[in-house]
Amino acid sequence: MRRWAEMGKATEAIHGHEFKEEPFGAFIPPIYMSAMFEQRGETRLTDRGTELKYSREENPTVRALEKVLAKLEKGGDALAFNSGMAAIAGALLGLIRRDMKLMIPMEVYGTTLELSQTLSEKIGFTLETVWPETGRIVEHIVDRKPDIVFIETLTNPTLKLIDVREISKACFEAGCWVIVDNTFTTPILLNPLKHGALMVVHSLTKYIAGHNDIVGGAIISMTPFIKMLWDWRRMLGGIMQPFEAYLTLRGVKTLKVRVERSSKTALAIAEYLEDHPKIEKVHYPGLPSNPYKTIADKIFEEKLYGGIVAFELKKGKTEALKVLRRTKIIKPSPSLGGTESLLTYPVISASRALPEEFREKLGITEGLLRLSVGLEDPEDLIEDLSQALA
Ligand SMILES: Cc1ncc(COP(=O)(O)O)c(C=O)c1O
Asked: From the CB of 116, is ligand 1 less than 6 Å away?
């Protein structure tokens, strides 16, 4: 029998919760809808040595999910939160001090940028933004010696692939910590901890839960860091709720097949769009014409390139908004990673916090749309795009 560390990710996602306390022999972790747990003298401890007494601190359904997440991301332990932003806030608050410097690429999820700016103003740490390219980030690390570097593996929305190996190596030499938001790539394509990152954060709302029906987040790291952040979660009260944890446990079981399927459909759609006369440019790291394809082939584990495709219309905003209004199966909505395909207009959603001049330079133009490819039949999605573009 292989040890957990040697098992495949599909097996880990299905069995990694290790749940075995149910007196009736159920092998699916139940939803523990209980705010409190009895305390009659003896202390009931979780497997990580914390007390099981109150669901703001620990809950067995949430704990089962955390065990799966820690295995999938090759971490020592995990903490589940009630949103991706709660996880990111927990990670930043737990690590940062007033005398520190945080470096963050300017093309990250807008609320992450807003949070970093707001915290920097309130707490007084230095925040430096940098152009989202591996070489520029490495130069910045060498020259400016930040204490914490926060990156997203694939930038949102133009899908620039940041090489986590290079960033972690530079940070190791400069003595800084790397936090990686692995939401877009998922542990199926990439495990940043294996490449030297200190911490991985996720919006579980996206691929991991995968069905567009819950909001959640997580931090995965080495056990001592998770112990320290556990206190932050307890104080902030940001733990995931048991029903959401149950749905996420159910969703994560199919993560690998979902990522495989949406990546394959996304490649077919990217190829279709690249040849379309109304399209100026397609951003997808799996296209041979894409500047990040070579790094993607080196760092993505499964030779898959993810389920997000961004594309720019030649006629800009007018045409982009028309497409957004005309799709029938593909829903106009600013999320990603679920069973339903979603189309979003980044200028007014995830990238709205960015000043206009930066947006243009980053390629987040008024004609850009971001498609999260779901699990519908590929030919129906292509047909839908075709009629919307016609
Ligand atoms: C890359 C990324 N990180 C974090 C978040 C925040 O996650 P949540 O909406 O679950 O708080 C999002 C949300 O869209 C995201 O796209």
From this structure: no
Examine the pLDDT at 4 and tell me if it is beyond 80: no
Whole-number percent of the chain with pLDDT over 70: 100
- CA–centroid distance, residue 3 to ligand 1 (Å): 32
* CA gyration radius, the chain: 21
Strand partners, 130: 105
**Residue identifier of the C-alpha nearest atom 10 of ligand 1:** 84
In ligand 1, the atom with minimum distance to the C-alpha of 88 is: 4
Is 379 buried (19+), middle (13-18) or exposed (0-12) by CB count in 10 A?
Answer: exposed
Range 193-222 average pLDDT:
98
Q: Mutate which of 205, 212, 213, 344 to test ligand 1's pocket (most atoms within 8 Å of Cβ)?
A: 205
Q: Is 156 in the pocket of ligand 1 (CB under 6 A)?
A: yes
pTM over 0.85: yes
**Residue 335 CA to ligand 1 centre (angstroms):** 8
Residue 379 CA: distances (Å) to CA of 256, 265, 268? 22, 9, 9
CA 22 to chain centre: 32
Atom of ligand 1 nearest to the CA of 85: 11
Structural domains of the chain sorted by starting position, each given as residue range(s) with its CATH number in brackets = 4-252 (3.40.640.10), 255-389 (3.90.1150.10)
| pLDDT tens digits for range 315-366 | 999 999 999 999 999 999 999 999 999 999 998 887 777 788 888 889 999 9
Distance 387 CA to ligand 1 centre (A): 30
The length of the chain in residues reads 390
Location of structure tokens 């300017």: 106
- What's the mean pLDDT in 29-38? 95
Average pLDDT over residues 5-20: 91
Ligand 1 within 6 A of 61 CB?
no
Distance 92 CA to ligand 1 centre (A): 15
Task: State residue 220 phi and psi, 5-degree precision.
Answer: -130, 135
